[in-house]
Amino acid sequence: MDQISIIQPDDWHLHLRDHTALATTVPAAARGFGRGIVMPNLAPPVTTVAEASAYRDRILSYRPAGSNWEPLMVLYLTDNTSTEEIRSAANCGFIYGCKYYPAGATTNSDSGVTDLANIHAVLETMQELGMVLQLHGEVTDTDVDIFDREAVFIDRHLLGLAENFPKLKIVLEHITTRQAADFVTSATDNIAATITPQHLLYNRNHMLAGGIRPHLFCLPILKRNIHQRALLDVATSGNKKFFLGTDSAPHAQEHKESACGCAGCFSHPAAIELYAEVFEQAGALTELEAFASKNGPDFYGLPYNRSSITLRREPWQIPSAVPFNDSQIIPLAGGNSINWRLA
Ligand code: NCD
Ligand code: ZN
Question: Which of 2, 174, 244, 251 sees the fewest Cβ atoms within 10 Å?
């Protein structure tokens, strides 16, 4: 096969940042994708419908001419989010979920929820309204090893959450472990997961063996190869519960290559091609369309995109750097040659 056409894919988890950064991130997010779930972890975070509306307008002002790419907005849950805000979010027509960050888990998550008990009424309202809860599924307890944070979150919090809110639509985001893949596989149909290109392409050896590679550092952190294998298996299985979410998360080069570097991989310059490469290596290119273009809209209750994209077998080099504000970003796999190319 030297060419494939699929329904235009969507990205169910991405970060755009704000203001002048949008000049880089919005065209990159719109490259190949029809829609994108925009994470609200700005500083300060997007916690109200009014803030989400203003942020959406700023994003749209950077959308390339002629593009129909659509930002799907998300509210950031805090200990103080009200059920009224959830109701107006569900009615506003441009908000597609609410994001739970455990306080302190990742970039700009200081205002996150300190205890799930604090948002009980909010979750009840979301369940009633059919609103999607996007979960950053890691505990932040300092006694829990960073490589175990996702598995411990499932045991300590997610099992109970799923039991207490049996109809709540939950996306366990950017899953990284066999435990998460197994949990989602055996859960009810209201629970799904997104998977990033970096967690399919790499394991922690790629990041740490023979020298530390800060551009592969993201959260949840890359795990052992057995976990990478489990993610590859579910992503390429055709199972409707798993879909594309790049978690493309730009940070300027100097903030990654630092004594205390930021977490996040910027994958948008070649995102769909990286997934195509992974699926081809797994002998499952025919499953790419379901994972990238169908399972996400089906879960969110949205129509498929009406246009399609074509990928050609045509080796090219992923840009080794992309301008970003006064600096630059090193993209995921930047400088590497890749076999598939978006036409
Ligand atoms: C994300 C970011 O930089 O905003 N970083 C990351 O490593 N994934 C935050 C997140 O999604 O955890
Ligand atoms: Zn993210």
Answer: 2
Residue range 109-132: mean pLDDT, rounded: 95
Q: How far is CA 64 from CA 22, 24, 25, 187, 311, in A?
A: 11, 11, 11, 40, 21
- Atom 11 of ligand 1 has which residue's CA nearest to it? 247
SS (H, E, C) 213-263: CHHHCCCCCCCCHHHHHHHHHHHCCCCCCEEECCCECCCCHHHHCCCCCCC
338 lines ligand 1 (CB under 6 A): no
Nearby residues of 300 by Cβ (< 8 Å), 6 or more positions away: 12, 96, 132
**What average pLDDT score do residues 199-204 get?**
98
DSSP state of 118: G
Residue 247 is a catalytic residue: yes
7-310 CATH fold: TIM Barrel (3.20.20)
Nearest listed ligand to the Cα of residue 13:
2
Q: State the average pLDDT over residues 177-181.
A: 98
Amino acid type, 259: A
The DSSP call for residue 271 is: H
